[in-house]
Structure formats: structure tokens, C-alpha cells
Amino acid sequence: MENERDFKGIWIPKEIYLAKIPWMAKILYCEIDSFTKNEKECFISNEYFADFLGISKTLVSKYISLLKEHNLIKETGFDGRKRYLASIVGGRVEENFKAELKKTSMQVQKKLQGRVEENFKDTNTSINSVTNPNYFLEKNSKIKENKDIFEEARKIYRGTKRGCNTEYEVFIKHKDWQEVLPNLKAAIQREINYIEGLKKEGKFAPEYKHFKTWLNQRCWENEFLSPDNKVINETELKRKKAMIKEFYGDIE
Hints:
252 residues; Arc Repressor Mutant, subunit A; 4 strands
């Protein structure tokens, strides 16, 4: 060889062995390093490396670029025909390797921290609340209290029902469910009084909806107006008023 070579066999430094690059790139590094002796440069052609490694010259170029990106080799010159390369040995490699390990360690720590925060996240409490030994007991107690209030209201409803847990999950999907809960039973009772009152008077009375549907449609907002005996949902009424205002403006 035109270039004096310091052949080291197949030994691979641990920094290169553990680097996150393809194995063929690691072997290429060792070849370049073996031609780099006493701060000399390697000017072996891509064609030689391609033949030696049994890969294409395109892949050789790709792996050389990859080694540069990882600061494992540097290009010291190019005359249009020969590329001059040198391995970066000693402190630079070790420094880059440690930096990579530190970066990976920080990424792992961030992921673990994110998972911890996600697991203990609660809408009404901060993550610090888990330091309270009674936290989960208190939380379960509050859930049970809310379910008991919901079940008390649910029991008096006269329409078809599917089960407390199923319907409770539907109810708490509403953003304002905590504000509605204390008045839920009274809202159901108003509807019962209205429908049963129509029946007693011999008038047409609407059927009770499935309770799940009743909850989805926020029927606790229903207002019962007399003497027309019409049931108007407050949300629907607001929507219609907005439409009228949009087309006709404010009506005095």
C-alpha cells in the first residue's frame, strides 16, 4: 500500500462498538483509523473501500458522511480525485461518546418523568398530592359520594335504564356535571310531575326517554311552559334564538 498502515486486527474501541451506527460503518472506521498513524492522513479511494467491504461506492460515501456526522472521522482535504481522511481518536471520541450517553440518559429521564406525571395526573389535584397517604382513599370516597347522589336521582327516573355505572360515565362526560349533580334529582322530578300531570288531565303525554338519551341530550335543562304544555330544551332554545338574531337582527 502507498499509505503506511497501522493494522490493529479486528479490535474495535468500545466508543465505536457502542456507537449507534451500522456495523459496516464501524468496520469502515477501523479501516480508516488503521491508515491514520502518527497524525497522518488516509487517502484510500472509495473504490478500494467498496471492494474491501463488498458494498457499493455509494454506500461507502454514505457511511463516510455518517462517521463525519458522529465526529468519528474528519476530512482534511480533497483534490478532486483523492479524499483525505483522518480518524478522530482519543479525547474527542471519548468526549463525543460520553456526550451521547448523557443525551440518551436525559431523554430516558424525561420519558420516565412524563410517564409518572401522566399516571398521577388528576384534574383537581397536582402531582404533589400523591404524597398524601390518604389520597387514593379520599379520591375513592369522593367518587362514591358522587355516584350515590347520581344513583338517588337515577332511581326515580321512570324511563328505561341500563345501569348506574354505564349512565354515570355518560353523565360525567359533560364539562359541568359537578354543577348539575346536586340539582339532577329535582330536574328529573320536574319532568315526572309534568308528564304525569298531563296523563291525569287526559292529555297527550310524551314517553319517557331512555335515561342514557336523556343524559346525552342534557334534558335537565328542559323548561315546562304553560298553558301550551310544550317542553323546550334550553340549549335548543338558545340555538334557535341565535339563528333568528343572525338573520333578522335583534327583535324588540
